[in-house]
Write a structure and sequence with these properties.
The chain is α/β, with parallel strands linked by helices. Helix content is 22%, strand content 20%.
Length: 176
């Protein structure tokens, strides 16, 4: 007995989908709805302009009303990545509002958080056929979009889980 998983790319849904009745569209929706697990990359923030637009964005500032979560759920999506080039289009206010709306709607999400540790945490989805975990990261993002690690003397920085990112410390001979 396996788990039937549907994985899609970016979802940038800013208008209701449940009103459409075209047969091919409904066929696609039924495919997603019929999966044990349906994943999408949430390529937008969901808020009522709680954050300020960032100085840089992921190409355009993407956001939608939080009610679009219900449209995603109608489509059958039940777990999402929030790590992408639009994660901080509306800075920390937009990101935190989005995560709050997803939590309130019961939609598991991964890839962003209050600090690097939280952004790296998996999201779990329980299904009748087993538990699924999602770890999400992004490889393209504005430089300020990376989540920062917390330290004993400092809070972490909200943001996304960066892919292919490393920190190097170079010590001079005198310091070494």
């Amino acid at each position: 007995m396996g788990i039937n998983i549907v994985a899609t790319g970016d979802s940038l849904i800013t208008m209701r989908q449940s009103v459409h009745s075209e047969p091919r569209f409904l066929e696609m929706a039924q495919l997603i709805q019929g999966a044990d697990v349906a994943f999408t990359n949430l390529e937008m923030l969901l808020h009522h302009y709680e954050g300020y637009p960032a100085a840089e964005c992921g190409g355009t500032y993407t956001r939608a009303d939080p009610e679009m979560i219900e449209e995603l759920k109608w489509m059958g999506f039940d777990i999402v990545s929030t790590a992408n080039n639009h994660s901080l289009d509306y800075m920390y206010g937009g990101l935190m509002a989005t995560l709050g709306h997803l939590d309130a709607a019961g939609v598991p999400h991964a890839g962003t958080g209050l600090d690097l540790s939280e952004a790296r945490q998996p999201a779990y989805l329980e299904t009748p056929r087993g538990r699924v975990a999602l770890i999400a990261a992004a490889s393209t993002f504005a430089s300020f979009g990376r989540a920062g690690a917390a330290r004993r003397d400092m809070h972490g920085r909200p943001g996304l889980n960066p892919l292919r990112y490393e920190t190097r410390y170079v010590l001079g001979e005198e310091t070494l």
